[in-house]
Amino acid sequence: MQYFSSMFDDVRTMNKRQLYYQLLNFGMIVSSALMIWKGLMVVTGSESPIVVVLSGSMEPAFHRGDLLFLTNLQDDPIRVGEIVVFNIKGRDIPIVHRVIKVHEDENGDVKLLTKGDNNSVDDRGLYAPGQLWIRRNEVVGRARGFVPYIGMVTIIMNDYPRFKYILLGTLGIFVLLHRE
Known about the structure:
Blueprint: H1 2-13, H2 16-44, E1 50-52, E2 67-71, E3 83-86, E4 95-104, E5 110-115, E6 134-135, E7 139-147, H3 152-159, H4 161-177
Antiparallel strand pairs: 1-2, 2-7, 3-4, 3-7, 4-5, 5-6
Helix pairs in contact: 2-4, 3-4
């Protein structure tokens, strides 16, 4: 408790110019992170260039908490065996699974059938009612690399929202009080 009291004393002793400087620093950090994210979106062609594996359905290839790097270049065809991340209508969270069949109809439309490596059946039970295939426009990206378990921080913050607010608040206070 003594630590928090001294932090607030530091804020009170700052003059307005120092406080504005710290707020501007904080704003620059946030805007830099957003610019990096948007830049990654442009380079990778994916609306979400980085995702976290949230379930064990892809074990042993990927484990819960692995951080995946995605690309979604439209001119590069998707092949059987590739791991894709896709959205299903009516679901908030994208799914990370392997392509087990690729079907191209006479119009040139590509349709995919997916399955989790750790699942016994294909994903047709996960698709929207009446949907038998994933269309190319539902694919968010293809896994191109990963960092093991680094995404556990995201999972913990989603499972324990108080932890997320404490961590973000602490980081915000640190940025405001750090004078360099």
